[in-house]
Each structure stands twice: as structure tokens, then as C-alpha cells.
Design a protein that fits this description.
With about 280 residues, the chain is α/β, with parallel strands linked by helices. Helices cover about 40% and strands about 15% of the residues. The strands form two sheets. It has an eight-stranded parallel β-barrel. The termini are far apart. The model has no long low-confidence stretch (mean pLDDT about 95).
Length: about 280
């Protein structure tokens, strides 16, 4: 790498949502076609928090370097930004094979330890329910055993948020309660599977630390918020008015994020005509 190379420059977001809501607004770490540092540098002035995405764990460079973590921490201080961490999506804590489960525990534990200096608000976890273990009770027990091994490293249980995926989250509810975990409410996933987001919020509101928000249309996921129907948006806004955690707009392009932030601002202003800013 050329030490004299100048940082890349990208167009800024159209709107700032920093301190605009009673919840912290976040966006992903991959909006611009660049790495973590460049994205954080360009996004920090416009949002309260950034969701650091770690998609895969199987490559040698999947674990962020200590130098990257140090630089992200410095950017957080200078940009007045916080982070949450999305753990890799290629891990299988409830897999039938003990070796696969062991590798998953190792990957999760290593990433949590490496990112801990960033003081993330939460670590979002996919507990994947797949065909590797058709017995639901055994899958649940194996998931719990793996999570207990992760928690044994010292991370507080409420710092881990289990995200709702394509199966009924009630299947894993006993593990969430027994291990005292938090919940990541992905509203897009719920709407895609025609699950009542209001009922889900009421069921889990005491454990929800982060909400993922995006529109869906059939098989199309992570669409801009203006693709939500009026009825869907009303339900979303009713939930957000009661929520004080982190809401992450899971959009992965500048255009989609700009559109979604503008739509959220306008809808919030319509529902709260006295002003945007919390407090």
C-alpha cells in the first residue's frame, strides 16, 4: 500500500439523521464501494451508529486486524459514532456435526474478542435452522450448548442479539430465555413472511436491542423504505415511536440509503409535527 495514497472521496448522504430520533439510527458498513474505514469516515456525520458487517468466517482474513479495530475506534471518537457488530452468517452453532459447531464457537468468540474494544451496542447473531439437524429439540440443545461456550468467554449474555430469520423464532425462544439473550427484530424478515410486526414487538420488546429495517417485495429483500405500503409504514412508525434502541437501515447502496433516510424523516415528521429531534 502506498503510504502517500489519499483517502477516497465519495458523495455525502443527502440528509443527516444524527440525533434526529429517540432511537439511534444506524446503517451498514458497506454503502460505498470501499472498506470499513472509508465507509465509517463518510457515514459518521449522518448517522448515530454503524452496523459493522462480517459476512463470512472461513477465510484467513475474515477476522479484522487489531490495526483496523484501532483505527475504527479512533474514527468513532472523532466522528462521534458508535458501532454494532453483525456476526458472520456462515456459522452453524446448532449443526449436527460437533466439529462444525466447535468451529462456529471459535469464529464467534474470536470476532467478539477482537471487536470488544469498539464497545459495540450489540453483537447480532444468526442462529441458522437448516436441514443439517432435522430434530428441533436436538438443534435447540446443540445451539444452547454452543452459546454457553461463547458466553463462557465472559461476554454478557444481553450483548448477544438473536435475529429472527426464516423460521418461527418461538422455536429458539427457550434458549433466548434460559441464557438471557437479547433479540434483533428484523422487520423486513417478518414482513416477508407475513408475520405481524406489532405482535412480535410486543412479545419481545423487553429484549429487543436492535431493529433492522428495510422493505421487501416477494423474494426481493433489503429494498428502500419507500417500497413499503402505507399500512406497513404506519405499523413501522408505531413501533419506532415506542423504541429507544438501535434501528439499522439495512440498505447497501447510496441511492437506497438516501431514499430510505428521506422517507423515514418525512414519515417521522408527519407523525411528530412538533419536531424531529428527540427530547
Amino acid at each position: 500500500m502506498n503510504p502517500c495514497k489519499q483517502p477516497q472521496s465519495f458523495p455525502p448522504l443527502d440528509h443527516s439523521c444524527k440525533h434526529a430520533f429517540p432511537f439511534a439510527l444506524a446503517c451498514p458498513s458497506f454503502v460505498y464501494p470501499a472498506g470499513y474505514l472509508e465507509n465509517v469516515r463518510h457515514l459518521a456525520p449522518f448517522v448515530d451508529e454503524i452496523e459493522l458487517l462480517f459476512f463470512e468466517s472461513r477465510f484467513a482474513d475474515s477476522l479484522p486486524s487489531p490495526r483496523l479495530i484501532q483505527k475504527l475506534a479512533l474514527q468513532a471518537q472523532s466522528g462521534q459514532i458508535t458501532f454494532n457488530v453483525h456476526l458472520p452468517t456462515d456459522i452453524y452453532l446448532g449443526h449436527r456435526n460437533a466439529g462444525v459447531r466447535h468451529a462456529a464457537v471459535k469464529a464467534v468468540s474470536q470476532l467478539i474478542a477482537r471487536c470488544t474494544p469498539l464497545i459495540p451496542t450489540t453483537f447480532t447473531l444468526h442462529l441458522i435452522r437448516d436441514s443439517s439437524e432435522p430434530d428441533n429439540r436436538r438443534w435447540r440443545a446443540q445451539s444452547a450448548e454452543s452459546l454457553e461456550a461463547v458466553l463462557a468467554t465472559g461476554i454478557p449474555s444481553r450483548r448477544i442479539s438473536v435475529e429472527n430469520l426464516d423460521y418461527d423464532v418461538e422455536q429458539i425462544a427457550p434458549v433466548i430465555h434460559d441464557l438471557d439473550l437479547s433479540v434483533c427484530m428484523d422487520m423486513g424478515h417478518l414482513m416477508a413472511h407475513e408475520i405481524d410486526i406489532t405482535a412480535f414487538f410486543d412479545r419481545w420488546r423487553e429484549r429487543i436491542t436492535v431493529a433492522h429495517l428495510h422493505a421487501v417485495n416477494g423474494a426481493q429483500d433489503h429494498l428502500p423504505l419507500d417500497r413499503l405500503s402505507s399500512e406497513q409504514m404506519i405499523r413501522v412508525m408505531d413501533i419506532l415511536k415506542q423504541f429507544s434502541g438501535v434501528t439499522s437501515l439495512e440498505l447497501f447502496s447510496l441511492k437506497a440509503l438516501n431514499t430510505s433516510m428521506a422517507h423515514l424523516l418525512s414519515q417521522w415528521h408527519r407523525c411528530n409535527p412538533s419536531g424531529l429531534t428527540a427530547g
